[in-house]
Amino acid sequence: MTQQTFRGRDLREALAAVKSSLGEEALVVSTASVRDGLFGRAVEVVAQEPDTAATPLPRNEIALAAYRTATAPEPKGPAFDERLKPLEAEMRRLRAQLVSFVSRPGAVRGGHLGDASSDTPIVAHLISLGFSLEMARAWSARITQSKDFMVAVEKLVWDAVDLTGPVGAAGARVCMCVGPSGAGKTTTIAKWAAAAALEENKRVVVITLDTFRAGAIEQLARYTKLIGCELLTAKNAAQLMAALDAHAAADLILIDTPGRDPSTQPELVEIGKKLIARDKRTEIHLALPAMYGPRALRAVVQSYRGFSVNRICFTKIDETHDFAPLAAVIANDRLPLSYWTTGQRIPEDIELVSTAGVVSRVVPSLITALCGESIVVEERFV
Q1: Residue 187 pLDDT > 50
Q2: Helices within 32-132 (DSSP H only)
Q3: 3-class DSSP state for residue 367?
Q4: Distances (CA, A) of 262 to 213, 296, 336
Q5: What is the 3-state composition of the chain as percent helix, strand, coil, each rounded to the nearest 5?
Q6: Phi and psi for 232 in degrees, rounded to 5?
């Protein structure tokens, strides 16, 4: 059953909207007090129509439900939900399919990342998701040696995750966001600034190096004016360093950057190195769009490797339902994860990454991919 979200100034108004749209018998799934814009509050209610018939689950949700069924205690008593029976059947199908794959060595014929001619199909699937050959073989060995492949996949993902705290939590005064054009760097900077200035009462300064893109400065100017923090521009490393010196009293300095290939902009790479040399606590977050395909994700990470990146912020996770390729980024590069961005609203649509959050998003997609079903990725991101 499709769920809908309703907002109101208070619970009474939100529930009135629910009843008006879905009727008196609507089922309320959850309620929450949420931020409305920069300063307001609202009540948000998630509701759905009465559940009169079972609704097929999306493919990834079936995989996650199957995983949960496999690891949950056996239900007892007459209240056992009959709707779990199709999920149990799906779980058995997935398990049988993986066992079949594992038993067929030599299915991979010389992948482009190395000679994998003697490897299992699990290695092939992992390589197709962007895993290095070495990492694919290590994960495949762990999966095939386990008595329960779903638990093995969850454990692998869980162990691979490394986390950071909020921006500045480790003592950094300077935090820079880099990444490809359209990755959401500017809105991410605005979300960080709003949280630090409005919720933590910090003195925040925003500096933009993006003087190339039309409207970039104007966009940040609107955000910083609403937030109440200062905005500066810098065209080169010398101007940036001078601005940092002039604002030594600021609690937090956030630096926005242009979305240009670092290989064509050596000065940007040098800026990253100078910032780290100036203060080793400096945070350099790579904004990585979650909806990119495996090859695009790998290319972006590799191109920014010389930028002294020390954190990854996955952006636009609301624009994809396939998180399996993110497992390769997490496993291959072992860079700490900082944030997810989940939409355009400032400052609401951003979350600190948690290990449980990574597992709940990545594991179902990864299980589906390892069972040999095709991964749907928009062609322009592959």
Answers
A1: yes
A2: 59-71, 84-102, 121-128
A3: helix
A4: 16, 15, 21
A5: 45, 15, 35
A6: -125, 160
C-alpha to C-alpha distance for 289 and 93, rounded to whole angstroms: 32
Distance CA(51)–CA(83), nearest Å, equals 12
pLDDT score recorded for residue 87: 60
- pTM given for the model: 0.68
Here the tokens at position 72 are 């949950």
Element (H or E) spanning 382, and its range? none
- The pLDDT of residue 372 is above 70: no
Distance, in Å, from the CA atom of 199 to the CA atom of 223, rounded to the nearest integer, reads 16
DSSP 134-181: HHHHHHHHHHHHSS-HHHHHHHHHHHH--B--STTTTS-SEEEEE-ST
3-state SS, residue 4: strand
Structure-block tokens of residue 259:
């979305």
Give the residue from 51, 143, 49 showing the smallest Cα distance to 94. 143
pLDDT in tens, 92-148: 666 555 555 544 444 333 333 344 444 678 888 899 899 999 999 999 998 888 888
Q: Could you give the CA distance from residue 229 to residue 222 in angstroms, rounded to a whole number?
A: 11
* Nearest in space to 192 (alpha carbons), one of 177, 181, 171, 182: 177
In the numeric block, which tokens belong to residue 114?
A: 């190395």
Look-up: residue for tokens 């038993």?
A: 103
Is the distance from CB of 268 to CB of 209 less than 8 angstroms?
yes
